[in-house]
Amino acid sequence: MEQALPLPAATAGAAPAWPLRLLRAGDSALTVVLVSAVAVMVTVVSGQVAMRYGFNRSFDWADEIGRLAFVWSIFLAIPLGVRDGAHIGIDLVVDKLPPAGQSALRRAGAALGTALMLAICWAAVRTCREQWDELMSTVDISVGWFIVPVAVGALFSAFHLLHIVISGPPAKRIGAAE
């Protein structure tokens, strides 16, 4: 279930709400593409298994398309996990700090994460441009499509981490894994 980012209350001098609305719209689009990638992956892999074991035939393109859909699903899911605070973290030391210290340390970590995600996005865009002319062996599409979700996922992760830097970390959920 998708957790909505809270919109800030309209107060004098408050930051505009449009960046958060834009981020929410991006998350919705990301979710649609993510679900589509998973559906393609399941359909292609299931079809390939049925063809191989049921009819002793196979699609020559199924491995590459299935792998491509898998890569897209993984890298587009990462920013949604960042948004919800769902990624694994070690907070043994952080939990020992007072609330203000916890928030400051989490914001500092998010700031460092933002910088790293922007660096990954930049490197992925460069790599994608370098490999764009190279085609997959069984399908006439660029191998650069394997790198596009890395750039998109890193960019959206950076936006969510920046939101944490500005607004603070998401609240811990009761019943979260320990």
Shape: elongated
Q: What's the main sheet like? A: none
Q: Hey, roughly how much beta strand do the residues contain?
A: under 5%
Relative helix content: 55-70%
Order of helices and strands: HHHH
Low-confidence stretches: 9-13
Quickly count the helices. Answer: 4
Let me know the average pLDDT: 88
* Secondary structure: number of strands: 0
Could you say which structural class the secondary elements and strand pairing correspond to? Answer: mainly alpha
- N-to-C span: 20 Å
What is the radius of gyration?
A: 20 Å
What does this structure look like?
The chain has 178 residues and is mainly α. The chain has 4 helices and no strands. It has helices at 18-55, 62-84, 99-131, 148-167. The protein starts with 17 loop residues before the first helix and ends in an 11-residue tail after the last helix.
How is this fold's topology laid out?
Blueprint: H1 18-55, H2 62-84, H3 99-131, H4 148-167
Key features of this structure:
64% helix, single chain, 178 residues, mainly alpha
Would you kindly provide a brief summary of this structure?
By secondary structure, the chain is an all-alpha fold. Helix content is 64%, strand content 0%.
